[in-house]
UniProtKB/TrEMBL annotation:
Record's keyword terms, sorted: Metal-binding
Protein name: Damage-inducible protein DinB
InterPro entries the record matches: DinB, DinB/YfiT-like
Family: Belongs to the DinB family.
Matches recorded under Pfam families: DinB (PF05163)
Length: 166
């Protein structure tokens, strides 16, 4: 599969996951942004922001040759609406970056860094391939956080115990 075909397919997959992800993010109350289920767990607000920013990674992977996760700038949302708007903006940017991909472009190297130190190197394509799975993984974590706080879990791939409308 060439890079253009891959990018087009990836846009379709990203869009398929956007609706369910948005529904989950819309249920994160600002008053629980600091809540976490265990001392070793992420805070709810950070987890939700991570999910909202994963599409932004796609844009960065296409435009640049690295992401430094220690210095990557994050939005500090003041509320749920701002968090959801940030997600929507990031999905829009990822879609635009993917549509603009040219053949051969995704075979360039991509580094994940921490404070300038390379953690691993792969191709842009392989890095992009894992982003939706990464988002889905963290969305699953988020549904557990919602359940633990008695917040209704939305339907995702079918009905949930709280939401029969999909």
């Amino acid at each position: 599969m060439n890079d253009i075909t891959f990018a087009q397919a990836f846009v379709t997959e990203l869009e398929a996951e956007t609706h369910s992800t948005r529904k989950c993010l819309e249920r994160v109350p600002v008053e629980l942004f600091d809540w976490k289920p265990h001392p070793k767990s992420m805070e709810l607000g950070y987890l939700a922001l991570l999910i909202a920013e994963i599409p932004l990674w796609i844009t960065h992977m296409i435009k640049y040759d690295y992401i430094d996760y220690a210095t990557f700038e994050h939005l500090k949302p003041s509320g749920t609406e701002e968090l959801v708007a940030h997600f929507e903006e990031n999905v829009k940017g990822a879609r635009k970056a993917l549509v603009g991909v040219e053949n051969g472009e995704l075979e360039f190297k991509f580094d994940l860094k921490a404070n300038g130190q390379v953690m691993f190197t792969t191709t842009k394509r392989k890095s992009i391939e894992s982003t939706i799975n990464h988002m889905i993984h963290h969305r699953g974590q988020l549904t557990v956080y919602l359940r633990l706080n008695d917040i209704p879990v939305p339907c995702i791939y079918g009905p949930s115990a709280d939401d029969r409308n999909f």
